[in-house]
Each structure stands twice: as structure tokens, then as C-alpha cells.
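Input for the complex:
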Amino acid sequence: MAVVSKRPIVIGLEVHIQLNTDTKLFCSCSTDYIGHTPNSNTCPICLAVPGTLPLLNDCAVELGSRMGLGLHGEIQRYSNFHRKNYFYPDLAKAYQITQYGLTISDGGYLDIESEGKPRRVRIHHLHLEEDAGKLVHPTADGRLTGAAYSLVDYNRGGVPLSEIVSEPDMSSPAEARDYVIRLRQLARYLDVSDGEMESGSLRVDANISLTNPDGSLGTRVEIKNMNSLKSLERALEYEISRQNKVLDSGGRIIQETRLWDDAEEVTRSMRNKETASDYRYYPEMDLAPIVITDDQIEAFKRSMPELPWEKRERFEKSFGLAYEEIAILTERKELARYYEDTVEAGAPPARAANWVRMEVLRALNELGQDITDCKVKPSALAELVKKVESKEISSTIGKEVLDVLARENITLEDAIKRTGASVGRITSESLDALIDKILGGNPDVVDTIKSGQDKKGGKLKFLQGLIMKESKGQADPREASETLAKKLEGLC
Amino acid sequence: MEIHELTAKETAKAIKDKKFSAVEAVRSSMARISKYDGVVNALITVLEEDALRRAGEIDALIARGEDPGPLAGVPYIVKDNFCTRGVRTTCSSHILENWKPTYNASPVNYMNAAGAILMAKSNLDEFAMGSSTENSIIGPTKNPRDLGRVPGGSSGGSAAAVASGYVPLALGTDTGGSVRQPAAFCGIQGIKPSYGEVSRYGIIAYCSALDQVSPLARSVEDLALAMEILARPDPNDTTCDGYARPKFSDATAMKDLKGCRIGVFAGFEASEMDSDLYGALTRAGDICREAGAVIEPIDLPIAVKYGVATYYVTALADASSKLGCYDGIRYGTHIEGATLADMYANTRTSSFSEEVRRRIILGACLLTEGFYQNYYGPALKVRTKMAEEFEDVFSKYDAYLLPTTPSLPYPLGTKETDPNRMYLGDVFTVPISLGGLPGLSLSMGFNSANLPLSVQIVGSRYGDSKVLGIAAALERLIGRPTVCDPRKLGEVA
Amino acid sequence: MKMTVDREVTLRMARAAQLRIEPDQVDYMMNSINDILDFCALVGDLDCAGTPDFSWKMKKLPDRRPDIAHDWSDRDEFKSSAPAIDGDFFRVPKINAEE
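Predicted:
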């Protein structure tokens, strides 16, 4: 739904992505915590045991830098950490170590397309910070004992995040969504994060304001707790209409943080919670500064993979594909890789694009699989596409063969046999003979057609079906119907 | 000489030469502790059994002809803010009253690996906040040179233990003078190394930006030996410098001070401080000149004027944030409450002393917006100015002499309420901490009332060797401090 | 610029630090904090225009930690000494999920 607002909308996003490291930001505990026993991914450092000191993960610095470069940011030769002081049980040290002021990457932009229009969203900065633990609130009748208590699990505490703060450059919920989609795609291309919103490895906070009639910026409201792209859009839409209503009735927007309630589809004010100005920031003196040399930056740049927009451009140039096709094929680098492997194995680019986009994705979708799980090897797909292209097998049979390959680990030849088709397409001579045989065997049908009584073409379809059936699908449908038509004409 | 009168170096040599065993060294140490600590109250936890067992192992190594290390069999003590595996580590606070760490601080591991034997954990002002070792869960430590006076602090327990001959060597932490001042008050030697020389891993923080592990001993040679063992890169502390340290004990071989340029602090009038301590400073300068050094008066106007205020702003802000982890959830004291806020407040209010609470609240204040702009922010810039002043001095001098403290050890229970006066005691130690410079408090004998005199030798950042060298040369001329049998002055010596 | 705290700020700061001040102690705490603030205001007197913030200089910056996971062997020992444990969790008074 397109949102309507008579006041121009100004949206900025703060996106947290969990970095793809093996260990936490400041200790050697594994980041693989989902489903683990509570507090099993902990150590003296992430439990804030007295005397311990944070030890910065080199890989997090690299991933943060890579993401910064991907966003066209300026990687800082010198940056440092701060402590964000506040008490909460999920924060073991009573401060979060985060970057503030001097951050690992400064500035940059991300180009997006939204509703067919290109737009550039400027990036304010990217910084590193640690995640907090989790609180569990058992209910009185819950399975956990001691319902008078809340419980703390520090497994997530210290997991590395990079926060990407955009400029307020988005003007609709759809743009905000498309920005997150592009950002997530970039993070995945760079192997910086899996970017799953549902599992919390990508989290979005939004700042939204409505511009005043005099053009000045309105009061900014922060919205948190949106767990999917859909809820991001819904929350922004809700907030736009809420703010418009408040302003229409002569009210004032107050600067606050609101939580999105997914079930009720409303945003709610977070009362009694500290606001940003109450957080006490303070330089973290337990950590050496992050110094990144020019050589390291050069090495990061060299190790950058092809970025989504670069791939799109190349696909357009090398394969001559349409924008829509490219968009789908390059959405994920794994799919793009699959497609390229198929082309490399000899499939014509345009045909391969069609097969991958339509058939492979359909088969995967039916099976609930990811492209990385795909049992159809690109080389097999290429052979299959070539066989269909050379009419060795029909496209109908080809699709059946693909379905078999997608389900079972068998060779292309076995899959073709499985569909009942013998290898090799029927020759024109055999097709001629076969049609003659069929026409000879069904004189009444032929008569009906000849007499012009087959108005709806049902009899003709019947004959075509017989040809395909008798040829075990080896007849090329187009050739078969052309030959049939010729022969029927000759009989007239 | 009896065992307890020997230095660490002499003790290790005697044990390796089988003049006496490590077990005997530990027994000697225990005898001193048993005899005097009831009165001195320098120790929170004594580890007799562990120490005897470890001594047995050292003796066995020696019997097998193996080298247990440069501190073979030397009993040592650490301040009770060093984490020790399985051994209660209290920080003199109710909040950690019964806390047993699961790991050793790096400096403890280094000492143990060098063959030293941990005898006990010593008293301190709660969380190292204080300069008299009176604010403690076990009550005040007394100065063994005069039991009616404070030993200084916050490493007062370690200083009193070394002066009383419990051990030849002890470790403390120095944030704004917490080793140098008690060393001066107890009439022994103590050095705060340059910031970044020694790992802070396992040291319970007061102020991350300034805390530095610092040895106390009765000879400069022992300080150098300790530095050699302690100062090294540590993968567990990234604020500990990664560079290859010089061999600190080589520095103490310096025979005279020919070619040395030494500045002597002349920024105070004699009337502004204790006259005997002023005299000790003058005398130290004279001795340096006689030993061949070029002596010139220097002033440090920024450091002296702004040092203490800058120090308090820096340290309290840091302490406030570092002490947030004591929330009653994962370790330490926990006092139930109906709500989370109650549990926090119950736990923290009753487990921290009033002085610590004041510092935490003040620190929290300093980090809020307006206060940050007017206090913490300027303090960060003043530190840069101060560092420039120091650099300027060290472009002309190898080292300079300052008093360690402006006053002699004061009587126990002296409640100082005027912060201007209270903090004046730190005026010569905190600027050195803020600059990250090495500072060594050297015993200068006693005044006519038998109270200890001292002088502070300060070097450039990472100029620890030079400081140790000058101190060793001076010590040779002045004589090194001896063990005392703790007593109340006025009694027959 | 010299700053002071009033009773309200003193109490707010104590709350931020999760400390309680007994009602009859508020003035005493406030006054002793103001004494120190008064003394420390000195830091604002030095002209530091154009001076950068202080930071430590190091001779050799230590290497950053390699991204290799290690398990902690003393976890059970640590947990057994924790003050309030419930199963594998640390326990705190009930917090409303919305808080």
C-alpha cells in the first residue's frame, strides 16, 4: 500500500548487522549461540569478571572495514572505542563497548532503486559494537521455575555488530525497505553477515519525522522492535499516519522512542526508559586504539569480491540480459554464481537465464530449498538446456528431467530415462511415419477435422496429444504440430 | 644477616646455593607474619599451606639441579586487588568479600613462573581508592615504622609487609601514587613503571587509564629484577605495550651519574611542604651532583597546578564505570530485592563504603552532558598539555627529582575533610601517573623523629631503566632501607 | 566552568549508579560532591584551545586477537559460585518484558 502524507516524510535508518565472525568482539567465545545451553558461550571477559580486559577480534575489524568499503565509506586509520554506561542485567559490565565519534568507517552511500526510481542514500558512518545478552521472562505457569524472577543468558553478550547509520535520505516506507534489502544484499555479498532479520542478525531502528510547512525538519521519533521487512514498512506507515493525525488535530510530536507491536500493528511510547542523552559515554581505556594501516586498507580493497551493482553491470554487458532478469539472478551471489557456472558449462546465456530464473527457482521453491542446497549441478543444467535447445528432448520433458534431478542425486542420462524418454529426439522421418500411422488409425477424427466441424480445435489437440504420447515426448511439439497441420492440409 | 633481612635477589641466590631452603624462607616469612601482623594488620589472607607446598616443589627442583627461576623460593605478597586462582580476592570490599577468581592475574603468573612463592594478599583501601589503607573490610593497616601512623595507601599493606620483613618483595598497584606514597611512608623503595610496561590482566580496576602494577622492595636492584619479570607484552592486555623490553637489571650497574642531566623540582617554597622532606629533596640533588650529574632547578607549573584536579576527574569517571559490573548478578555479594532496582540498590549500597559510593556518584555525574563538557572534556586536554610539559623537560634532562609526598606519614584516624588539603598529598605523584611516566620513590633515611624520608625519581615515558639506574646509584651512596621490627615511636628503639 | 549539584541531581546520579542515599544523608553527600566539583573546576582554567584530547602513545601496538574460538574450562566452577543461579541462568528479580 502506498502511503499518503501531505507532509514530506524524512526517514533515516540505523541498521545493526551481526558480523560473520567465529568469536565474539572482545573474547574467544563462539558466536554460534542460537539453540545453545544458556550461558554456555561465555567466559570471564563477556561475563565482566573483575580483572579481565577486552581483546578486540581482528576479523571483526576486517569485516567492518569491508562493509565500510562496500558502502563507499572512508576507512579510518585511527579509531577507538567508548563505553556507553547504563545498568541492565543483560549488560554484564554495565557499559556497552561501542564506537562513538571516531568510528571505523566514515561517510559513504548506497544506491538503491525503489518503485522503479534510483535513489542514493548517504551513509553517516559505520561503527563496531558488542551485542547484549538476553533476558528470559518466565510466566507463572511457564515451564521455568521461579516465576518471581527473570533470568539472564549472556550467550549473545559480546557478539560483534556493526551499526550502519544512514543520513535521513529516505522519503517513504518503501524506500526504507528497499534500502534494507540492498544493505542486506551487500552484507551477504561481502560475507560480512547472513543478514537474517528473523533470527536477529539484522536489526533496524528507524528515525522518522514529517517536514513542517515552512520546510524545516519536524520532531524526530525513533521506532524500534521491527523484526521483518514487512513490520518495518508497517511500522513506518503507522507512524506516518499517527504523526499526521496528531499534527492535523493541532498537536505536537514529542521526541521519543516508540516500540512497534507486531501483533497489534501499532507503535507505543517507551515510557520510563532512558533516552539517548542519559547514556553516559566515556572513552574505553581498556583497549588499544584500532589502527589500520594503508597496506591493510589496500589488502581489504583487493580482497573485495564483485559487488552487486558491479555484477549487475557485467551481466548486462556480457550476457545481454534484461534488467528484471538481472535483478533476480544477482539478488544473491550464490544464485548469480550458479547461473554463471551454468553458462560457463556451455548453456546459452539467455536460455540459461530463463531456466534458472523460472525452472530452477520453481523447483527449489517447491522443495523448500536454498540455491546452495540445489541438487541440479550447473553442468547438468547446462547439458539439459543444450539438449532442449538442439531439440534432442522437448522442453516439456526437459522440465520433468529438471524436477527429477532436483529431487534425486542421479545423472542427467538416468533422469532422462526415468521420464520414459529414450535419449535422442525423434527424427523428422520417424515423426512423419508416426503421424501417418496415427492419422491412419483415426479416420473418423480426420474426417471430423476435414469437414470443418472441429471448431474448437479439440480434435486437433487430441491428435497432437497422441503424437506426443506415442513419441514418448520425444517429438518436438512445434515440429509435430507443424507437420500435422501440413499433412491434414494435404489430406483436404 | 637473618633470612628476613635479605633482599629478594640475595634470598634467591642463597636458596640456589643451598645456604637455606625455600621451605625455610617461607617459614621465616611466616614467623614474621605471625609475630607482627596481629598488630600491623597488613594482610587480608595468608597462604601458609600453599606457600609451604610450593616451597617444597622449588626445593625439589633445586635438588634435581634444575633452575626454578630468578626468584627461586622468594616469598612475595600481592595486594588483594590481584586475582588469584581459588584464593579469595576481596579488594577490601564487602562486594567481593567471598569472591574466589578462577584465574591468576598475569603478574602473579609471571612471579610464580620466576620461582617466587605467594605468601599472602595484602590490605588496601577499598578498590584502591584512598591513600591511607584505613578504608578496608579488615580495618586499617599500621605503619611499622610508627604504629601510630598510617602506612600510606592504597598499597599500604604491601608496603608495610616489605618494611616489616614479612617478604623482600611485594606487588601493589599505583594509580595516582598508591605505591610510591606508601613506599615513602614505610621507608622502602617502590616504582610505578611507565603506563603500558606491565600487564593489567587480572588487576581489579580502579582506573583503567592509570592503574599500573608496581613492585615494592628494600632495594632498587630488587625493583629492577621485578620489572624484568613483570614488564612484557601480554596477549590478554592490549594496553600493555608490545615492544621488546630492555634488561632492566643491567641498568642498576650504573656506578656514577657522570653525564646525567637531572632536574630538581624547585616549584615549591620550603614553607609549602614538610621541611625535612624538602631537605631530603635538596640532599638527593646534592648527592647526584657529587656523583657527577649536572643538576638544574626545574618547574612543572601545569603539572603541579592542574594535576590533582585532572587526576580526580579522570579517575572518578573511570571508576564509576568500572564499578558498574558489581551488580549482584554473576559474582560477588547479592542482596535480594523485590524489584531489579531494589536488588541493585540493596547490593551496591550496603556493599560499597561511603567513600566508594561518593566516588561512584561523582563519577556518574562527571559523565553527564554538562559536566562532561566542563570537567572530563577539559581534563583530557589538560593531560595533553601536561604531557607536552613533560616532553619539554625531558628534552633537556634524563630524569628529575621531585618529592614523593609533601608531608610525613600522619597519625591514624586523621580525618581530612577539606578536599583541597586531602588531595594536596597527591600533588607530586598524580602528574607522573597522568603522564604515564615512571616514578620511583627512594628511601632517604629518617628525620630526627625517626620518620621515613623519601624522594621521587621520575623519567621519561619508557625511561624506566634510566630511573632504576639513577636510583641504584643514589641508593649505593645513601644506603638501602633495612627491615624494621614494627614499633610505636616513643618506645625504646 | 564551575558546576554544582542540587539535591535532585545528587539523587538522580545516585539512581543512575544504582546506589541509594538515605534521606538524612542527601545533603551530606551533595555537599561533599560539591566540594570536590568546586576543587576540580580548576581543569577548566587552563587555556587548551586547539589542544587535542589525550591518548596513550605506544611503541608497538599489540596484535589484534585472531578469530579462533576457545571454550572456557572453568565455567562450572564459576557458575557454582554465582550468587543467584536458576538452572543454567543467572537470576534477577522479575522484570516486566515491556520494561
